[in-house]
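SAMPLE LOG
Freezer: B-3
Tube label: C17
Construct: single chain, 142 aa
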Amino acid sequence: MAKEIKHVTGSMGIDWIGIGIAALVYMALGFIWYSKALFFPEWSRQMGLSGPKMEWYAIPGMFFAAVLYAIGLSRGILAMNLKSLTGGVLTGLAMAVCYVFMANSTKLFFAGKPILFWIDFGFQSIAGMLMGSIIGARAKLT
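STRUCTURE (predicted):
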């Protein structure tokens, strides 16, 4: 009985190292994707920002969001038994299409900002596939 309680309240099979690596990859991709060399100028114009504005909590907040995204991917990969690089990539893409598309669709359908939508959706899709590949490949090793 003690083993069952430990399983329910413990890590529940979550690979915290994989979650951490995936979250760091998400952050690194975000720094590149939203850099001045790529999409920041258009993204900030679409957002109505006159210059780079970043509150002190932006980076820790996005890292926390990346960890949550990675945990969701991990649970999905394990629940569907897609413990492979390919399974992780497909799960990441599916989550992006099903959830990220829906969450950002107001930019496309109501705000009249299709460029902003595609910049953000493109980032989340690629990030989801990269994170899923890390988590899926690591899950296959266990």
